[in-house]
């Protein structure tokens, strides 16, 4: 019972992060399932089954708050579904001994990308309003869908930063559109896993509690996306993913590191993680201060113009 409650809380927290940041539900949930000994294919299948419900709830919530561009959803979601089905069948064909470290490497890479991307660069906002073309979104969806299924997460970490980097869509619409399109990816990946491993290796009680936690969090996250600092959240989530998957790799048969080596690795990662969060907080405050100064300057210019117009009249 305690494990189910913990999974429900993880589902809630993961969806809260995913709905606010546009990524990390699958990465966070799969990382935990691997940490408690679930085999790679079953972990990814469990998460994707839960995501059918959470992404539907998240997509509806984002749509109600005006955060979804349906043209983007169609252009990236359909290729994403194809990639997810291929990734699920590929992962299902790997042995457990090979699949677990491979998935941890993918998750570790995604965690590092999230940490560096949001700590160093924040959210780009140039080129807003320019169209996102199918020749960019279709290959992106195909790759993101494949990575998502094989890594137990990756749709958001691959898709969201790439679209944000284009600067052609407002950040809240990028997050809402990526979350809404993930519904198609979750369905396709789940079908692929049913073909690959069947249903006997999936704990449907775990699916249910992950789903329940995520559904509760979805509307809250859709509201928070307008208020929470993505830069700080991205740094925090990236560090969690890195630390957890480094632990999995160091304890795997591939490396089998000693206790001393593991301790040193954890301390180094924790120090880098803390520095990244501190840097993100500082940069966020600096950006807010600059925005306040710019707003004040514009207001002063407006008042000066009004005074000149009054004086000339």
Automatic annotation (TrEMBL):
Signal peptide per UniProt: none
Entry keyword Acetylation: no
InterPro entries membership: TM_pro_TauE-like, TSUP/Inactive_protease-like
Compartment annotation: Cell membrane; Membrane
Listed transmembrane segments: 72-91, 98-116, 136-159, 180-198, 204-225, 232-250, 262-281
Topology in the lipid bilayer: Multi-pass membrane protein
Coiled-coil region: 281-308
Entry keywords, A to Z: Cell membrane, Coiled coil, Membrane, Transmembrane, Transmembrane helix
Keyword hit for Cell membrane: yes
Major subcellular location class: membrane
Homology family: Belongs to the 4-toluene sulfonate uptake permease (TSUP) (TC 2.A.102) family.
Protein name as annotated: Probable membrane transporter protein
Species assigned in the record: Nonomuraea rosea
Organism ancestry: Bacteria, Bacillati, Actinomycetota, Actinomycetes, Streptosporangiales
